[in-house]
């Protein structure tokens, strides 16, 4: 049986890529499928939580029982997440949010011109870092990091730099890990210094492992 250790809690999960428009027919995006975030939303609901899933464009069935809110751009995701943040206990940011967007969106389709073309990009807001600044004592923040190199160093820098409680790092160069796979290979870093290195497993099982750790932290805080 599934433990009901998230009963009565409000959980917000983000998933998928964002799309940053360049003109009416083109956008910048990334290879995120949304599978990890959808697995987390489903698992949190099964453990008794009220779950809202803020998702970028993904070709996946919305998990039953979960309130789904669809967005396209990082700006829209920022608005949606900030709107709900104050009333949630746990936020898991599994979305692959674009760091940059085209600085200007052309109202008309951009025509071919010459042999080279330049696009100026503007920085998107870092949603998770903003949540880290606003976080209250009862709230738990879980971030993700997709790394190709220096995984441990980058993971620890994000954990403290963004004021997170847990950081899930995946080496996207490993076979069966990261974008678009049904499986993942992750390490979960906590503020207590405990690092769990999990073997290759299905994303639904990875989701359970992440929620095991989050539920324990939430319980210890509510008991405190
Ligand atoms: O620093 P980096 O972008 O690798 O951090 C990844 C984590 O931060 C993920 O949890 C991602 O959802 C979140 N993020 C965000 N807003 C951004 C960029 C990343 O919330 N603009």
UniProtKB/TrEMBL annotation:
CTP binds at residues 99, 109, 125-128, 144, 158, 162. The gene is coaBC. Residues 11-224 are annotated as: Phosphopantothenate--cysteine ligase. Its EC number is 4.1.1.36, 6.3.2.5. This is Coenzyme A biosynthesis bifunctional protein CoaBC. One of its GO terms (molecular function) is metal ion binding. Catalyzes two steps in the biosynthesis of coenzyme A. In the first step cysteine is conjugated to 4'-phosphopantothenate to form 4-phosphopantothenoylcysteine, in the latter compound is decarboxylated to form 4'-phosphopantotheine. The chain holds residues 179 to 402 of 403 of the full protein. GO terms for biological process: coenzyme A biosynthetic process; pantothenate catabolic process.
